[in-house]
Design brief:
Radius of gyration: 17 Å
CATH topology: Purple Acid Phosphatase, chain A, domain 2
Number of strands: 13
Number of domains: 1
Distance between the termini: 36 Å
Shape: globular
CATH class: Alpha Beta
CATH architecture: 4-Layer Sandwich
CATH superfamily: Metallo-dependent phosphatases
Number of helices: 8
Structural class: alpha/beta
Largest sheet: 5 strands, mixed
Helix content: 25-40%
Length: 285
Amino acid sequence: MALYLIGDIQGCDSALQRLLDKLDFSPSRDTLYGLGDLVNRGRESAAVLRRMMGFGDAARCILGNHDLHLLAIAHGARVPHYSDTLNCVLSAPDRQAMLQWLIHQPLARRIDLQGHVLLLVHAGVLPDWSAEMTMAMAAEVGSMLQSTRASEFFHAMYSNLPAHWNDSLEGLERWRVIVNALTRIRFCRPDGEMEFDTKEGRDAAPPGFMPWFEVPGRATQHVGVAFGHWSTLGWHDRPNVYSMDTGCVWGGALSALRLHASGDPAQHELVQVACEMVQQPGHRP
C-alpha cells in the first residue's frame, strides 16, 4: 500500500492519468491525497472529478480556491471568469453528483506516519495556528458548507478582509478568514496579516511580508505541511515544507510525493510528469 500527495491538477485529467500510470497507482491498494484545485484552467475538470469520485475512499482530497470558485458559481454567487473552464461540470447531466462530492471534501487533512505528523492544506496556515487548530478551523467551515448557510457564505466569500485572524471573529467574517488562510495565502507578516496581491515567487515578498512558512516561531514548524496553490514557488525542498503545485496547467509538471511508511522525510520520493501548456501564464488567482 502506497500513499501519494498530488499537487494542483486544475482540470488536467490526461496528465493525471499519465502520472497515475507512472506511479502504478491502484485504488484497491493505494491512497492518493489531492491538495486542492482539482478543477479549472484545464479542459477536463469533469473528468478529474469523475475519476476521483470513482476511486472512492482511495482518493482523499481537500478544497482549493478554484474548487470553491466552482461551488460559488453553482450557487449563483459568482459569474464565471473569462479564463474559467468549468462549463463541462456546470452543464453536465451528473453536475449535482459532482458538486455534492466536492462540497463534502474538507479544507485540511492530517496524516500520521509512525509519529510523523503531516498537515495537508491547499495554500498555507497562519503563524499562530497549530496543526490541531488548523484542523478545527477546517472542520468548522466544512460543517458550514454542508449546511443551509453555504449559499450565504459563497455570496460573501470574495473579500480580502479581515486580513488578520482574531479569536473573537464570528460568522461570515470568521469563515472568510479561515478560507483565505487555507486556500489563498502566500505571504503574511509575522503578526499574521495576510497579503493577496503578490502572485510571484518567494523573493517577491512585499516589504514587511514573507512566505507564510518562513515566519519565525510558526506554530506548525515542527510538523510537516504539504500544500499546493503556489505554482511560481514550485517544488520547494526544505524541512517540513512540501510545496506541490509545479504548474501543470501552465506547461510545467504534475507532481506526486510518494510518502515513505516510516514517515522519514528523507525517504519520501518526488515523481513528476511533464505537462503541455493549457493556458498562458498571466493573472493567477
